[in-house]
Structures are given as C-alpha cells and as structure tokens.
Amino acid sequence: MLQEQDHTHYPHSDSEMEISKSMASISVDIKSSLPEITSQNLQSSTSLNNMPHIVSEVNHDDDVIDPSIDEEKELGGVEQHKSVILHLLSQLKLGMDLTRVVLPTFILEKRSLLEMFADFFGHPDMFLRIANQATPEARMLAVVEYYLCSFHVGRKGSLAKKPYNPIIGESFHCSWQVPASQQLGQSSKGTSKCRLTYIAEQVSHHPPVTAFYTECPEKRISMNSWIWTKSKFMGMSVGVVMVGDGNIHLLEHNENYTFTFPSAFGRSILTVPWMELGGKVNIHCQQTGHHASVTFLTKPFYGGKVHRVTAEVKNRSGVVICKASGEWNGLLELTYATGEKKQIDTARLAAVPKSVRPLEVQHPYESRKLWQHVTNSLKLGDLNTATEHKKQLEERQRQEEKHRKQTKKQWETQFFSKNGDGWIYKKPLT
To answer: How far is it, in rounded angstroms, from Cα 117 to Cα 164?
Structure first.
C-alpha cells in the first residue's frame, strides 16, 4: 500500500547517474511508441464532453475469471539497488510527506492501487454471509469476522511491494460469482448464485483519494468506501495512514455498519522490505448500537510477534459478546459470550479469484488497459521500459492538470460524488 506521486528533482551526482540507470533513462524507441503530449491533444483530452476516462456501462457478463496470480517472489534487487535507495533516503527528513517523492520502479507490484483494494472482497462468501444472518448480533459478528479476514488477501507474499499510483479518472471494474454451495449461512430463501460487482475510481490526485463500491442485488447488500492515502518517511520505514471510512449497507434490515482502516508500514527498506498493519479501528452500527474495537499491533522493537490483531465486540448495552485475537494473516481465535470458541486460519483460506473483462473490451482509462505496458515490461524484467512508460503517464497527468488550471476547468468524476469529507457512489443499490 505504499504510494508515491510526482517526481522530486535532485542535484546531479554519481548516485543520481545510478538512479537514472536503475529507474530508466529516456529511450527514443519507447517515446515513439507513446502518445505525444501536445497542447492540441491536451485540449481534446480535457474536454469535459469528451473525457478519455469516461467508461460506458460495464457489462459484467463479459468478465472472465482471472488466471492464478503468482506471489511477488522476486525481491526486486534491493541489494543491487542499495546505492539508489541510500541516495533517495539522503534527500528525505523524518516525518516528511512522500506525496511528491518518486520511489524506485523495482518495488512496483504490477497492478494499480484500485485493483489492490478489490482484495477486500477476496472472500465474497464471507461478505455475503452478513446479509444472511437472522439477528442484529449475528450480523455484527459476521461483519467483524469478514473485516478481520479481509486484509491477508492483498499480500502477494511477504515482501512489501507498491502498487501503481492511480491516475486521476482511472477506474477498475471486476466481479465475483458465488455459487450457493459457497454462500455461508445461506437461508432457504437464498438464490442459487450471486454476483458481487466492484468498481473503483481515482477521484482526486491532490490529495490522492480512491473511492470504491461493491454490491450484490440478490442479497441486497452494498459497501461504499473512500481512502485518502497519506504517506510519510519514518527513517528505515515508510508509513501510510489510510484516512477514510467504509460503510456496509444491508437494505433488507436498514442497517449501516461504518468502519475505519488501519495504517500500513513498510519496514526494513534497506534489507528485505516487509509490510505490517498498525493502529486502532472502530466498527459501529448506529441502528442496532452494536460496536467493535479492533487493534492491529505493530511488532515491538525487541522480541514480540508480527501481524497481531485483537478485537472486542459489544452490544447496545455495552456487554462484550465476542473477543478475538491472533494474526490477521494467520490463525485467529474468536471467543463468544456463550463460551463457544472458533478458529479461523486465514493462511489456509483460499481467495476467490475475481473476474475481469478482457483488455480488448476495456476503455483506455481502466487500470489494466492504462498500465498494460508498465505491467508487461515488469513481467519481462525490463525496468527501464517500465519506468519510461510510467513516467509518460505521470507527465501526461501533470500536463492535463496544468491545462485545467489554465482553462479554469474543474475535473468531473464519473462514478462517485463528493459528500462532505468523503465520497459516495452515484448509483447505489436501492
């Protein structure tokens, strides 16, 4: 979840020459394959009536199941590029906002942040199970169980890798088909198969804000979220505070479950980078009064275990109805007020693969289409080409933003609208 934006320019030095080699120098043949940035095509691309990010109605019947995705096994040459990282670190100060600092290409994760957030629904059966529960208490417990199990899916291996920083107007669409046999807690009224759809949009560049929404009409459940990622330098770590919230809406029961997100930390950035979560979050249902506090514990400096999490769930009267502890990416144990105990080993929970429309039917500003050349270059291990394509996309975004300021045109989002400090989906399930 580590993000970067825009380029910070450093003075020329021997280290910078190595950075240029590692993060790519401009290649004539690469530039010739990318669209030239001119005032004419900027004017055309920023026309509010003909925006390139506009996506016509998405037909999820075109979705095809993703092939299995390998874990991020390669280290990306941390030792090989150590002098690059050291030079970058020399430009930073403790607590410095990393919004305008470029990070090396070799730590990219081969997908956009918009797609990474879809991993929150890597267990769609657990999400849909919430709507099947008969009582407010059971539904709250199902929300907490889903929340605790939703974070491990996003980690492709133990290494800390950074997804692509989304371009404003970029969107990502996918879905999951959940057969009846996988719909946990299904009642007799359940349908044979449910489709859960997901849409994400980069609604702001400064600050970087992503909004995403998912729904299942068959179960009459939806979730609306927005996240502003605020990153800062912490010495040998990078911290990312995820400002924002999520809201699970159960239409059948007229209940809303609001929750916040933990912070993410990239540790040991000079050796073997790894990621952990930290901070306290809250889950609350205003209609029923049930609430939960969840604490993600960071590893102590000396000793201690990694990836620990604890949770406590209370009813309207403040009585504890469940306690949970364990690892968010390993074994979790839940103890209920009845004395009953339940164990969930998230490491053994296989994520349900999402379905995505093929590239040939995607629009230019859909994540996989937009970043396809960067992704292909990274898969081939060609960091120079990957970096150059990435720089072209980022430069185009800067030029378009500059043009909008000069022409006093406001950016228009397509799928989400501003609502106070947050963002809400324009066409929610009703």
So the answer is: 12
Contact call for residues 239 and 224 (beta carbons, < 8 A): no
Neighbours of 177 (CB within 10 A): 16
Residue 196, CA atoms < 13 Å, CB-side half-sphere: 27
Amino acid at 332: L
What is the rounded (10 degree) CA torsion for 317, 251, 131, 182? Answer: -160
- Identify the burial level of 217 via C-beta atoms within 10 angstroms of its C-beta, where 0-12 means exposed, 13-18 middle and 19 or more buried: middle
Name the residue among 26, 291, 319 with its Cα closest to residue 143.
Answer: 291
CA distance 375 to 105: 11
Q: What is the pTM of this model?
A: 0.82
The answer to whether 121 and 127 have CB atoms below 8 angstroms apart is yes
Among candidate residues 178, 52, 168, the one with its CA nearest the CA of residue 124: 178
Distance separating alpha carbons of residues 352 and 19, to the nearest angstrom: 39
For residue 126, report the phi and psi dihedrals to the nearest 5 degrees.
-70, -35
Sign (positive or negative) of CA dihedral 318, 422, 394, 197: positive
Which of 98-107, 177-186, 230-239 has the highest mean predicted lDDT (pLDDT)? 230-239
Give pLDDT, residue 275.
83
Measure the CA dihedral 230/205/121/225, to 10°.
80
In the structure encoding, which two tokens stand for residue 426, read together? 């324009």
Lookup: tokens for 147: 């929340």
DSSP H helical segments within 172-294, as ranges? Answer: none
Q: pLDDT tens across 352-362, in order?
A: 999 999 999 99
**Number of C-alpha atoms within 13 angstroms, CB side, residue 318?**
0
Encoded amino acid at 88, one letter: L
**pLDDT, tens digit, 9 for 90 and up, residues 373-410:** 999 999 998 988 998 999 999 899 889 989 988 998 88
Give the mean pLDDT of 132-151: 97
Paired residues of 274 in beta bridges = 159, 267
Contact 289, 316 (CB under 8 A): yes
3-state secondary structure of 311: strand
State how beta strands 255-259 and 263-267 pair.
unpaired
